[in-house]
Amino acid sequence: ARILGRLTKELMEYPELSEENIIEEQFSENRLKKGIEKLEKLKSSIKNDNKYKKQIIDDIDYKIKISKEFIDKFDFRIIKKLTMLNSHGDFCTQQLIYHDKGEPTIIDFEKAKKLPIVWEIMRSYSYADKEIKNGNINTNTLSDYFKEVTKYIKLNQYDLKYAPYVYLLQLISSTFGYKEYNNDYSQIELIEFAFFRTKLCKSLYYNLEEIASILIKI
Questions:
Q1: From CA 136, how far away is CA 159, in angstroms rounded?
Q2: Residues 6+ apart with CB under 8 A from 47
Q3: pTM score, whole prediction
């Protein structure tokens, strides 16, 4: 969290990166509609000899169900009220190389762009907290993570309240891992990653209001 906060603060001084239609592509109603089409197409393509077929189909059905709920109930105008900042776009602990003195070098800025910064915070937390591997979110740890990041950058009330919604909105449309494994059964790590992210979706969905109420107090 400290490294992410420092990185984000430094990137604020960088010549502004392009938004590249990030909201429309990743955080919009249209994104969810296209995502449902992708999920339904994937569901129909699952091979009969895929040993995870039932779990994959169950996960896909769940994602479609939640996507449709978002389309019906979520006010997508809120996204435009979120703080947009330059960010790494793919930040996680694997992107860090440490010097002998313990100072990190951050690599792989291929996806760097201007985006809703709470998405980056939620995403990096989900890859950094060792307790989250079963999809369970420790709200105390998440709150501490946000508190550390906000020592370096300022978030508004919409950022804090809708952080879990924004992350879930982006996750539920993803077919990554399922599709790759269905094409190549040696991709065990990718299917496990896909299962992990769907567990994370479920945890976020069932705890959206609780997480929002905790973060809004920061």
A1: 22
A2: 53, 182
A3: 0.92
